[in-house]
Amino acid sequence: MADFHQNGTITTLHNLNTRPLHEMEREMTQFSIRRPLGLILPSLYSELQTEALPNIVQQLSDVPYLSQVVIGLDRANEDEYRHALEFFSVLPQHHRVLWNDGPRLREIDGELKELGLAPREAGKGRNVWYCMGYALATGRAESIALHDCDIITYDRAMLARLLYPVANPMFNYEFCKGFYARVSDNKLNGRVSRLLVTPLIRAFKRVIGNTAYLDYLDSFRYILAGEFAFRRDAMNDLRIPSDWGLEIGVLSEVYRNYNNNRLCQVDIADNYDHKHQNLSVDDKAAGLSRMSTDITKAMFRKLATQGHVFEQEAFRTIKATYLRIALDFVETYRNDAIMNGLSYDIHNEEKAVELFANNIMEAGQVFLERPMERPFIPSWGRVRSAIPDIYDRLVKAVEADVREFS
């Protein structure tokens, strides 16, 4: 059970009571009459073969309040898309599978590329962006949640808690982010959040001074959680990164667009586990190494837009400050693990900190060498201004795929 402490600059909604799920779902069903609710699931085809996604689909089949489920399918050929249509057909809610690699959506993507409006690289960011565009185009849902398809510990109470703050018409939240503990196999997980992002934010505060933006980021209990919920209007003007900076990028965008009293975070699970990325010490283009570099670049870019000047000497100072703070966190987490009877590998934790410290310098170098880099995908509001009928075309392409291949 969580405490009730409010820290930082955004509202934290806790799990203070074991509330019956049927009671919450009954309330959500009432909310959905006035404010229809939807869900976005960005998925790789390979996730259909895992233990996590079949359970997620089974759980969602019993959710009574969803008006729409939008599934973005990546890395799938025609046979695999047909299989995905069958796989998700058990969902009783209105649902569509976006075949992102199919010729119809690729044709739209190609036209957007010619106008400089398409995502620059494949990945979760691109998948989420097209799903958001489709959800906006259909207009079936007023409040929309997003979560990953690799959650091993998933149950539908997680979705109810995630959507509740933007579903309840008595609340004024435009955006909600989930948080949870990351413990499995008798050890602490979430290394990038624990050992990179939080100590890096504290390092920024020491080096460049306290700012409202850094206080805002430091308010989130699990800053890299991939579970969000939005009001539909919030998605229209959202620019999101196409790389591993997705979560930081989304938080930065809603910070830019809304006052903090329109944003919140909510405790959605006692524990949470999903597939784990390798540290990838020897491959900077993969795993947690690539993730840490992209996240750090995203933070440099955001702080630069607020007038902070970064030069090579600044990156060295930030790295040194980060390293000291992160190593202190290693001791803190060791003590927390011991008190809770968890195993804790100090060597691997410090190895991760050393990798992240080196990648802070790597991210800084990329930031200096590529001043014209544009990682953000344009908002759908901008796309519509360039191609007024894009929503109609997107819906028609998805419907044509379903008719032809189901």
Description:
With 406 residues, this protein is an alpha/beta fold. 51% of the residues lie in helices and 13% in strands. The chain has 15 helices and 12 strands. The chain has helices at 21-34, 52-60, 78-88, 103-114, 124-138, 156-167, 191-208, 212-218, 232-236, 246-257, 287-305, 312-339, 346-369, 380-386, 390-405, and strands spanning 11-13, 37-44, 66-74, 95-99, 143-146, 175-180, 183-184, 187-188, 228-231, 240-241, 263-269, 376-377. The strands form 3 sheets. Strands 1-11-6-9-5-2-3-4 form an 8-stranded mixed sheet, sandwiched between helices. A two-stranded antiparallel ribbon has the order 7-8. It has a two-stranded antiparallel sheet with strand order 10-12. Helix 3 links the parallel strand 3 (66-74) and strand 4 (95-99). Helix 7 (191-208) crosses helix 13 (346-369) and helix 10 (246-257) packs parallel to helix 11 (287-305). The chain is globular, with a radius of gyration of 21 Å. The N and C termini lie far apart (45 Å). InterPro entries: Nucleotide-diphossugar_trans. GO terms for molecular function: transferase activity. It comes from Luminiphilus syltensis NOR5-1B.
